[in-house]
Amino acid sequence: MSLKEEKIALYADDIKKFNNGKVKENLLNAIVNHLGIAIQSKDAERVSCSDINELDRVRENFLRKKLERTESDEELNRSIKEICEQLGTSNTNKFRATFYYLLTKKYNADSAFV
């Protein structure tokens, strides 16, 4: 099994914990492809909800650029905070793929990956 396949299996299991046991494999594959080599770095494959600069990058580079969201910074920050809370404050493994998957589903933006 390749590293990418291993990561997809890991992320699918993680997403199922936070998404009522469901995962759309094609969406997850597209998100993993979007992340590229970031899945190879332990630091880059995770989102730190305590790092304001990181959360700003999620807002600007993922929500605004990839998902093309036009809501205010405040609104988008609330959505990011909501996902942080959903994944758990004590959870140190907030995988970026899971985070992006949940944001994509929240905004019903699967089409950004088609």
Describe the protein.
The chain starts with a helix and ends in an 8-residue tail after the last helix. The mean pLDDT is 96. It has 114 residues and is mainly α. The protein has helices spanning 3-18, 25-35, 52-66, 73-87, 96-106. The protein is 60% helix and 0% strand. Helix 3 (52-66) packs across helix 4 (73-87).
* Principal-axes shape call: globular
Q: How many structurally independent domains?
A: 1
Kindly report the CATH topology: Recoverin, domain 1
Q: Please give the CATH class.
A: Mainly Alpha
Sequence stretches where pLDDT stays below 50 over 5 or more residues: none
Distance linking N and C termini: 25 Å
In total, how many beta strands? Answer: 0
- Average pLDDT, to the nearest integer? 96
- Which range does the strand content fall in? under 5%
Task: Determine Rg (CA atoms, Å).
Answer: 13 Å
What is the fourth-level CATH superfamily? Jann4075-like
CATH architecture label name: Orthogonal Bundle
Number of helices: 5
Strand-pairing-aware structural class: mainly alpha
Amount of helix: 55-70%
Q: What is the ordering of alpha helices and beta strands?
A: HHHHH
